[in-house]
Every structure is written in structure tokens, then in C-alpha cells.
Amino acid sequence: MSDTAIPQIRSGPLDGLIGPVGRAIWGALILAICVFILAPILVVLVASVSRTPYLTFPPSGFTLRWFTDLVELRDYFAAFQFSLLVAALATAMSLAIGLWVALVLTRRDFPGKAALSALFMSPIILPELALALGLLQYLSQIGAVRGMLPTLLAHSVVCAPYVIRTVQASALRLDRNLEDSALSLGAKPARVLWDVTLPLLKPGLLSGGIMAFVISFDNVTISLFLAAPGATTLPALLFNQASETGLNTTLAAVCAMLTAFMLLLMLVVERLVGLERMATSAVAGKR
Amino acid sequence: MSLSRTLTRRQTLLAGLASGVMLARPRIASAAPTEFVMGVNGGAAYRNLYNNVLRHFEARHNAKVVPVFGSGSELLNRVLAERSRPTMDCFVTFQGAWLVGKAEGVLEKVDYNKIPHIDDVHDFLKDPDGYAPFVNFGAWGIVYNKDTVRTPPRSFKALWDRAYDRKVMLGGVYHWQIHLAAFAYAWTGDQKNIDVAFDKVKELAPRLAGLYGLSSDTQSKFQQGIADIAPWYSYTAQRVRQLGVPVAFQMPEEGGFLYPSAYHAVKGTQKVELVEKLIGTFYDPELQPGLAREDGFIPSNKKTVLPAAVAAELPTMEEVQRCHHWDWALINRDEGAWLNRWNAEVRRLVRG
Amino acid sequence: MLGLPTAYFLLIVAYPLANLVRMGFSRPERGRVFGEGVSLANYVEILTSELYLETLLVTFRIGLLSALCALALGLPLALYIRRAPPVLRSVIVFITIAPILISIVVRAYGWMVLLSNRGVVNSALMNLGMIDRPLRLIFNETGVVIGTAHVLLPFMVLAILGSVQTIDRALEDAAASLGARPWRVVFDVVLPLALPGIAAGTVLVFILAVGSFVTPVLLGGQLVLTLPMAAMQQFNSTFNWAFGSALVGVLLVAVMATTLLFDRVLKRRLARLAAR
């Protein structure tokens, strides 16, 4: 675990480098940035208890009825279930692709490797709109816009680069001697992969898997365009409902619940791998 | 983080997995009604539609509606893209999309003889070529905030009155073309005089409170007090009023514009009969008062009797008869050129 | 070795995009949606029309400003996280990453409540007597930049964090103990080493901002026209798929050119700079 290896001797952020006044200004700046990050989210959460059916801030009155109106919430819950299913399957697919690609890219040299690597990384930088429209045109021409298939295909390629990055980071640190000695002791390659390589790559797979799950679960643009009959994810449904009726208080309540779910998920992540480690290796790549 | 410390890693993972499986488990389907895939507008529009019409349609014809959400344009795009292998049985369109759909050959004709109550429906809602008739309609006129505007504009031309400076918003990205045609008509008596409309809109642009986009945007701008007056639809105004936003509809003196919508059978569907039944359900005089009260749709069935309180909130039939239709053939033909002009000439004059 | 994944990516990523670009080269008859034949007309129209060149400019300006704003906010945050004590560090990382998990639709509506003329910020400022009339913070480019920077800030912080974490603290401490002023330590020791991360983050945010669609639609108030929005107008308003595809094609080329430029030119220079 490289995080724990970073020495944490001093307590202050720039301690020893700046005086008390400088530290106060520095602290205030950081606090202001944190407020900037949280403000638009908190506003919606707070407004979700307003008595008015539309969003106002500060909320007028207090009620929890938007959280308990099960008839209104039924469709959102179905979409939530669908989103979970899609995210889980997309994560599994991108883990499989990511493991395969990352292992080959870190261990072999072959002509055209740079181009291939660019192809596998491209979904991160391609405009989602282009990917979604292109895929929609193509899939609808062959009649494949049914069920979760289109969403899943698109999510799997959008999430895979993050897994490739994290697994690559792990694979670079991996001690090849362990695998070699297992092979020389007569273990079959498949067993070596399962018993030696995979456990060693676990941090990378875990980080990448979680990042993939989050990216899939939160995607709007692709899910919106590729939604097939009866197969709409929660973020796409939220966008649809919000653009049709504005952000009414029911939607704010749904968002509040979604936020609670995400907080729970982050707690689990923090417990399993450490948020920071997961996120930096997925975005910044090898380190 | 003290909670997480008390759990072991494995426990956390297992608990996460278990709850994930519980939540993701798809619901078990009951019996076997016919699945009917419908492209519809989402949000409050769908909730009202379901409660007032689709619920009854499902029960009466043992169907199960599977909604696909989108705007009329988005849905038409979807239908066009999948023309070789359609996934939808039927979808909602407005007049502009209806003409494009007809020209592109992606709509299926319906048998008017099989549509219940069709003889009681206004003739202007029927399609001469035998495609689905329009099921409901409202008028496009002037919507204003009752609390802040004492004397609302009585005609489209009155929007240019200096008294309404910085109060009016017009439709941006999605609605600009109908504004242009309507204003051309209001100022010259002919929708074709689009140059006049452009000049007039450019004159008004610097004095606007902004432009609106999707219907949610219009609503939130009324709510937040960003604008107090907008050319808008009578029925969306009614729907927003249900939410407690104090808006009222003013039919312009020169007549508003009718904005009907239809549910068309998609070319290649095996369920044209269900589309006919669905259209009939819309026309049911028992169900129309619900549509009128919650959605502000003017009854399409001449025999529908509305409670007086509901009728008072809707445009009268006299007003409807003085309304105009947009020249959608003209709009569809020239829209591309207008769009460029709108983006280049008008947008930059609006201060927002 | 990579046959299957390559085929998968070619089929799901490359082919649909190529198809989209190809459609941009066709020209539909009036009133029809699909184009036929091969023609440069769409691209010529885009690249010679003042409107679309301006749209391209606006899109790039929003991308650049968003990237700079995200940098201005993300750099201090990343530097702080790097040296913060463990608990505070977890909390700040948590706050930084939180927005990725919250639907961007929700955040856009949050901004409307905060920034509109009668919103929280303007009311507060007016009550404090700091301004006489509301600042125009939303439904213009300012609003789009604020919203986009907010959405993409986590990516910036993470990219910088990835590179500053490898900096040897002994180096800083050594500089400080030799009597260097704190800001000199940051500028002369930390920043040069963080440069690759800063550059990578800025380019990533720029690219993601240029291609974003939901935030400009919701926060631009219909007054800001970006390339993705112009493309969507063509699809959804005038049903001109060929022209819309061509606009997306221009966007694709712009994004790929930026990436290539970064990879070929900037990265090498930065590496050389960091090595010194």
C-alpha cells in the first residue's frame, strides 16, 4: 500500500513552510474551494424537504412526504435497479477487457502497440455525444436497440480505460519472479494466473472496478441516447424528468436518496481500497 | 469513519454484495398482457397521461405500456434511425414531426372506422391521408405571471410595448421557429414574411428577459422570477399552475395557434389495432375531463362535458375557432436557414 | 494476443464513429433526413460560415476557461491534500470526489438556485449592500464555465495528485532548511515536478469540457451555443442528420488534434523540463 508509505510526520498542510498568517489564509482558501464544491449539491438536498412541490431555497416548511410517496417513487426505484444491474455487468465486462489488455500492454512489445493503446484509451477523451450518436445510428440500423444491450456495450468501452490504467499501474509494480518461480515449479499457466497474478493485481482490479462502476452508474449522455424501451437508467430518467418538469421536490428527494447511497458506497470504497488511491490511479494512471 | 472501522473488510464487501443483489433483482413479471412500446414525453406529462388514459387503456385491452421517454423530435429521430427494425409500436408527435414522418414513410396508416368515438371528434384533428388523427390539443398564446403582471399583453404585437421591457422571454433552441412564423403572421398577416419577423425579433431582443429552452426551463424561469411573460402553450401553463406557480393564459386578440399532438403507429408494427384502441381511449368522454383538468388539453371530443370550474380555465371553443395553424410545410422547408439566421443574428442581441 | 479486445473496440468505438463521420460527408435533399452521395458541402459550409466558426471559438473558449478555473481551484486542493494530516486528508479527498457521484443534472439545478438573479448568491450580496443590482452569473458563458469547472474539478485534482505524490518530501524539506522562503519552495521545487500532472489535468479537462453537452444546455440559458449543442439542434430541431454529423466530425477532429498536440509536443518538453 503505497499511501501508507508516504510519511506523515508533520501535521500542518504546509507546516514548517509558512507562518501562522499564511496558514490561516491557506486554510481559508481551501475551505472556500470545498464550499464551492459542495454548495450546489447541498442546496438541492436541503430543498428536498420543502413543502412546495417545486424547488425553492431556502425551503418553505419541512416535510418528508416526497421521500415516502411510493407511487411517485416506483419508476425511480425500477430505474435504480436497472442502473445497478447495468453498472455491475459493465464493471464485470470492463474488468475482463481491462485485465487482458493491461497485462499484454505491460508485458509484450509489438509493432503498433502505441496505436492499439491509443484505441483502448480513446473512449476517455472522445466526446460522449459522438460515441452515443454513432452507436445509436449503427445499432438501430441493425435493430439492436433492445433491452440493456446498447447501454451495456457503450458503458463497457467507456469504463474499460479506467481499469486498464489501474491494472497497468499494479502490473508495473508486480514482481515477475513470483510468477516465474510458480511456473518453474510446474504450475499450469492458468493456475499461475489465478493463484499468483490475480491476487497480486487485486489492488489495481479493485480500484479500476470501483471507478468503472461509478462511471457507469453516473453516466447521463450515453444512457440517455441508448435507452431502449423499458431500459432507462436512473441518471437518464432524472435528466428526462428534470427537462420535462424541472427539478420538482420529488426529484430532489430522489437525488437526496441517491446521494445517501453514493455516500455509503464511498464508505465501502474507503474501507476496501482507500478512495484516494482508487481515484488517482484511475485518472492519473501509472505512478 | 468510525462506523467503517468496526466492520471488517470482508463483512463490508459481503454486505455490499448482498444488498446489491437484492436491489438489482429484476421484478418478476405477472400474467401476460401484450407489451405495447410507446414513445412519450416524460415528467409530469407522462404521470398525468398514465393516470388519465394509459391506466384505463391497459386495463381495457390487456396491454402493458412500456414507455420510451423523449421529446417529439427525439422520438421521431429514434423512429427514423430504426426504420428497418422498429422497437416502438407508437410514438407521440407534433405537427412538424408528423409531416417529416409522413415524408420519410415511417408512419403506418390507421383504420378510422375502428377508432371508437371518431365521429364525435373535431374534423380539423383528422388526417386527410389516413394517418392517426390528433388526440389532444392546446393553444399557443401568451402566458404571464398573475402576481406580477397586472395588465397582460392582449396580442402578440403588444409584447413590443415598452411597459413589458425585461419581462418577456421567447423560446430559444427548441421553439424559435414557431415564434418567427407566428410573429410574421401577427405583423403582416402572412407567415411567409419571415424577414419582417426577424426584424421585429431583433428589435425586441435587447429588451427581453431571456430565452427559454425545454418546458422545465420555462417553468423554472417563471418560478424564479427571471421572466414574467412568455409566448407559451395553454396546456403547459395549466400543468405548471397545478404546481402552484401563479401563471395565467391569455389568448391573443388576433387568435393563438393550435398545437395538437398525435400518437402515430410506427411503420412495421404488428399492433396497429392497439394504436387505434389507444386513440379511442383518448377520445373517451369519460376520460377527457381528467386530461382537461390536469393537463389543460382542450377536449377533442365534441360531446365531452367539462365541469364549469375546469372549463373556465381553458380557452373557449369560440377562441379555438379563431386560432390559426402554423404552416409546417413552410417551417420544415426553411427551418435550416432560419436556424442559422437565428443563431447568428438574434441570439447575440439577447442580454439574458 | 489482443485480437478479441481490439475487434471489440473497433466494432463498438471506431466503426460507429467512422460511420458518423461518413454521414457528415453526405448531403440530404431538402426535407429528407438521410443524405446520399459524397460531398464536402457540409464541412465547407461549417468552415466558411461565420456562425459556426464563432461557435467553434466559443466552444474552445469555454473549454479553456473551464480548464483554467479547474486548475486554479484544483492545484491548491491537490497541494493541500498532499501534505494534510490523515483524517483531514480523507475528508478533503472525499469532498473532492463527491461530485463525480452526484448526477450532473442535480448539480446544474443547484447552480440555478444559487446563481440566478434572485438566487442565493445575488440575494446575499444585495442584502450585504455589496451590489445594487444582481450580477449576471448564470444563463451565459460565465454560468457554463462555473458549472463545467465544477463538474470536471475532480479530474483535475486527481491528475495533479497523481504526479505530486511522487515528489520526494526530503527535497522540499532540504530547500526549506537551506533557508528558501515557502513560496520559493513551492515555485522552484514542487511546481516544476507537478507540471506533468498539471498539464495532463488541464488537457483532460479541456477535452471533456469541449465535448460536454448537458451542462451547457442547462446553464447556458439558450444564449450560449457550443458545438455539441449546435449538432443536437441539427438532429432534433431541423432533422438534418448529415449536417449534425459533420458538426460532430469537426468536434472529433478538434479533440483528437488537441490530444495529439499534447502527446507529441507538450509531453516531451515537460519531460525535459522536469528532468532538469
Describe the structure.
The complex is a heterotrimer of chains A (287), B (352) and C (276). Chain A is mainly alpha-helical and 287 residues long. Chain A has a single domain (71-284), classed as MetI-like (MetI-like fold), CATH 1.10.3720. Helices cover 76% and strands 0% of the residues of chain A. Chain A contains 13 helices and no strands. Chain A is globular and about 70 Å long. Residues 1-13 of chain A have low confidence and may be disordered. Chain B is α/β, with parallel strands linked by helices and 352 residues long. Chain B has two domains: 34-137 and 260-317, 3-Layer(aba) Sandwich (D-Maltodextrin-Binding Protein, domain 2); 139-257 and 325-349, 3-Layer(aba) Sandwich (D-Maltodextrin-Binding Protein, domain 2), CATH 3.40.190.10. Chain B has 14 helices and ten strands. Mean pLDDT of chain B is 87; it is low at 1-6 and 26-30. With 276 residues, chain C is an all-alpha fold. Chain C has two domains: 16-48 and 227-254, no CATH class; 50-225, MetI-like fold (Orthogonal Bundle), CATH 1.10.3720.10. The model of chain C has no long low-confidence stretch (mean pLDDT 85). The chains are: A mainly alpha (287), B alpha/beta (352), C mainly alpha (276). Chains in contact: A-B, A-C, B-C. Chain A binds chain B through residues 52-56, 72, 78, 80-81, 84-85, 88, 136-137, 140-146, 227-230, 232, 237, 240-248, 265, 267-268, 270-272, and chain B through 1, 3-4, 7, 9, 12-13, 16, 20, 23-27, 37, 41-47, 66-70, 78, 81-82, 84-85, 87-88, 214-217, 219-220, 223, 243-245.
